[in-house]
Amino acid sequence: MICMCPFVVEHCCYAAISYFTDISFKLDEKTAHSSLDLFKKDTAIIYRMLGIDPSKIPQNPERFREWAIVLGDAQIVSGRHYWEVTVKRSNEFRIGVADADMSRDECIGVSNRSWVFAYCHSKWFVMQDSKKFPITNIGHPSKVGLLLDYEGQRLNLVDSEKNTLIHTLNADFRGPVVPAFALWDGELLTHSGLDVPENL
């Protein structure tokens, strides 16, 4: 069930996802940094080294100005929700969630209002509030899952092939959060509208 009372964040409205909804979202072009192009009906991004001329894209307070970040267009305020991410030809990216109203001048993983799993230099890390901790025994899978437990205050990285938890990040959700993605090369595709795997 989707709440009919959208939250307003810096003049941008999002649908709030309730406890009973399998989260389904698209990437919000209004938040996308100029180096990211959206495709596949706004469910995927590709990084462009030169990007789009900032003077040729609409300027608005929702857009990230310094970092190659884009947010999902659905806010989560309760429940357990699961989505998957496929990454192609990328050596550096971050996936997770962030406060819907986080500063557009900060990067996810650096901001204390974001919770992410990062891949860089062939290694995985947990990142939050500029703190970084390694995740071992994961390799470089082409697709992973994210399981958000809002009331449980947890974000889980999931092996999407085995439906097993890889790592759990304890969070401090205080308000609406949205899926968040950063990409510095290659492509990233999102897969939402999925049921939470039964054994998780």
UniProtKB/TrEMBL annotation:
- PROSITE patterns, sorted: B302_SPRY (PS50188)
Q: Does the keyword Coiled coil apply?
A: yes
Record-linked InterPro entries: B30.2/SPRY, B30.2/SPRY_sf, Butyrophylin_SPRY, ConA-like_dom_sf, E3_ligase_FN3/SPRY, PRY, SPRY_dom
Q: Does the keyword Acyltransferase apply?
A: no
Q: Name one Pfam family in it.
A: SPRY
Residue ranges annotated for the B30.2/SPRY domain, each copy included = 5-199
Alphabetical list of SMART domains matching this protein: SPRY
Which keywords, in A-to-Z order, does the entry hold? Coiled coil
Q: From the record, what ranges are coiled-coil?
A: none
Provide the protein name: B30.2/SPRY domain-containing protein
What is the scientific name of the source organism? Xenopus tropicalis
